[in-house]
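I'm curious: can you give me some protein's one-letter sequence along with its backbone structure tokens because I've never seen that pairing?
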Amino acid sequence: MNIKIIFLAVLLFMISANDWSNSFAAPPEADKPAAAEIKPGSFEFYMKSGLDLFSKEKYNESIAEYEKALKLRPNDVDALYNTGLAFQYKKENARALELYLKAVAAEPRHYASKLNAGIALDDMGRADEALLYLQQAAALEPGRFEAYYNLSNIYLAQKKYAETIDVCKRGLSAHPVHDRLHNNLGNAYFNTGNAAEAIKCALTAAAINPKNETAFFNLATYYESVKDVKSALENYNKALEINPAHYDASLNLAIMEAEAGKLAIAEARLIKIRTAKPSDARAYYNLGIIYDMKGDKALAVKEFRAAVERDPSYAAELDPYIQKLSGGR
């Protein structure tokens, strides 16, 4: 009755706001205006001011400056993009998307706008539309990894593992040391029954970034699937060294401890994570199993009922067992 989860490392990647001037063809050195020559009230003035404020995470003030620039040049790609990015950092994805699409209308080959439009759409729950923009971004810049990485996140969530493997390989061709792409590739391999390749990917991710808790957690899960108990325990503990609050690593470690007969240790670990995350049914469920193994029917029933209360999908399995343990009460 063990419940194990492969943690999907879904981290959205957005290109940071570049210096707006980098988008223009560089004039001869002698013709470049000095910073002091930027006139207050000019397009360049508002763009520089907006970028300075953005870099200080003052997004509302940054947007106000960019909007002044847009009044002077309503179809400027860089102004549209930077304004959209500021809205996206504020989690206002609908407004960000509107600006990115205007940027794309002005410059159909604008990679960053298509990339971030895809991310905004995915955040809005519109994954199929997100895929279209991310695919277009990848086609525009096949030598960059960002679009492939975000495509892999969506495909993985959709359980499209062949597609995940394909875009991860493309992304890694562009950026071989991207640890999260290795995470996603390993996850896809594991879900297609290839634990050996999954282990290689997780080992690579962990070597690239020794602070990547997901790599160690996934590695532990992969080792557990091939019955390498020692390596599984070692890597669950490594994940917890990096992040002591990693719920799933603690949960899976407690299950393994219980299976090894270390009931007191497993019980203490589950009580700790139950306290930290009282809405999650899995700790209650597994505590119920431990109390049942210890012969404490009353506590087992209490934990099983708490699990069903938090997740009714357990009812079909646990209700008959609760009835049996409680003598029909």
The first helix runs from residue 43 to 55. Residues 1-32 have pLDDT under 50 and may be disordered. The CA atoms of residues 259 and 266 lie 9 Å apart.
